[in-house]
Amino acid sequence: MTMPDERVRALVWAGGFLIELARDEEVPLRVRRKAVSIARHFPTIEQLDGMALHGGAGLESPYKDPAWAEGCQFGPLRYGTRLSWPET
């Protein structure tokens, strides 16, 4: 059974992974574009915190363990994350 902290950690890491994919020029263009498209609709760390505060989806606050965000090469997906559309 997945615990609330494991669930939110996976979401934080997945958001960070989308950023990594979108910025890695060694990844095929179509995959980087898909990562940008998904990231635009993926929950940010702030949204996950809001869901946790309101008891949504059995989540714990992503701020409970700051090491989760540190596990993301470019940081977690945030409101302020701006991923440009890959052209090449």
What does this structure look like?
This protein has helices at 4-23, 29-39, 45-53, 67-70. It is elongated and about 40 Å long. It contains four helices and no strands. The N and C termini lie far apart (42 Å). The protein has one domain (4-70). It is 50% helix and 0% strand. Helix 1 (4-23) crosses helix 2. With 88 residues, the chain is an all-alpha fold. The model has no long low-confidence stretch (mean pLDDT 91).
Keywords:
mainly alpha; 4 helices; 88 residues
Q: How are the SSEs placed, and which strands pair?
A:
Layout: H1 4-23, H2 29-39, H3 45-53, H4 67-70
Helix pairs in contact: 1-2
In short, what is this structure?
The chain contains four helices and no strands.
First-residue to last-residue Cα separation: 42 Å
Q: Number of DSSP helices? A: 4
Radius of gyration: 13 Å
Instruction: Pick out the low-confidence regions.
Output: none
What string, H for helix and E for strand, traces the elements in order? HHHH
Overall structural domain count: 1
The beta-strand count equals 0
Fraction of residues in H or I helices: 40-55%
